[in-house]
Amino acid sequence: MAYMSRRAFIGLSSTLAAGTVFGLGACSAPSANSANSQQQTSATEASQAEASGSASSSVASLTAPSQALSFDVEAGKVTLSNGVEMPTYGIGTYILTPEQAAESVFWAIEAGARLIDTAAAYNNEEGVGQGIARAIDAGLVQREELFVTTKLWNNGYSEDGVNGALERLGLDYVDLLFVHQAMGDYLHGYEIVLQAMEEEKTRSVGLSNHTNAQFVEVISALGVAPQVAQYECHPHLQRHAAQGFLAQYETQLESWFPLGGKGNTQVFLEDETILGIAQAHNKSAAQIIERWHLQEGRVIMPGSHNQDHIRENTALFDFSLSDDEMASIRSLDQNSAYYGMVGSMSQDVLESFGDYTFEA
After folding, report:
1. Burial of residue 139 (number of CB atoms within 10 Å: 0-12, 13-18, 19+)
2. Distances in Å between the alpha carbon of 241 and those of 81, 103, 171?
3. Which domain CATH number covers 249?
4. Residues paired with 151 in a beta bridge
5. Active-site annotation holder among 122, 249, 339, 356
6. Is 339 a catalytic residue?
7. pLDDT digits (tens, 9 = 90+) for 232-290
8. Is residue 295 part of a domain?
9. 6 occurs within a structural domain
10. I want to staple 264 with a disulfide (CB 3.0 to 4.6 A). Which of 41, 70, 146, 260 is the partner?
């Protein structure tokens, strides 16, 4: 089934057929259960959600996705709106060299992780692919058991950009393909990832670091909501309003830097509230934060090149947090981003992307 080109998109009353596992699922009208798992919304986020409400109503006539989002905490998986199953935890590879990425990916798979996240702008897709190939060759896993994610930068919004990512990874397809940032002609970028899904080069699509307004702009122009959206999300930036907004379209929120990211993780690992909960469960502070994310219904992929930490990051299913403990961590929310969107990123973060350009 062909998706709707934005150039051919005439009216929002047009509809799209529900897709197969590799197919396209159209965006939905706000659903009755869209408020599930949204708690303790901050005043600032609440105002953002209210501001986005009128925009979201403009796409309410579009066809619903093939099924509702279904997040299973204990099974460690979420069934996306197009029927694809995604692991709820795995490993991120931002700032890892290709050599480090190859080792970390192998260690993560060895420890039981099945979700692997990379991006063209990380300059380590080849290393990620090597780690995957090593794990498969060692008999640890089959390709079909893995969920591999990559992202297109603004200079890769093309068929060549998609094919280049697959070539670097050494894969025939990925399981999730993002538009990395709302930069350049990101509407065309989203066209490209939808085309890749139609051509079975990816099983699902996503938007990373797009505001609510940009999200609505994209799905209004293309007629298809992403299965996943990535945002910075941690105890100081909990994204409850964003999660509620995405739920209107059965879009799963995935947290990058769930532990705060390099230079900020220690703030949480030394937090008295988190340490107290960790002591009660005989777990590390990192495990408490990761379990909290999962019970909030968010996918996580903490990055590391420490084998012990990677093993620890997969040991999240032999304990659970009480309602009171969940509320205690929610109370830490400051609606404070350490990295933010491209326009607010610090220069050192921007420079970490190497030769990748930041075209407006």
Report:
1. exposed
2. 20, 36, 36
3. 3.20.20.100
4. 178
5. 122
6. no
7. 999 999 999 999 999 999 999 999 999 998 778 899 999 999 999 999 999 999 999 99
8. yes
9. no
10. 260
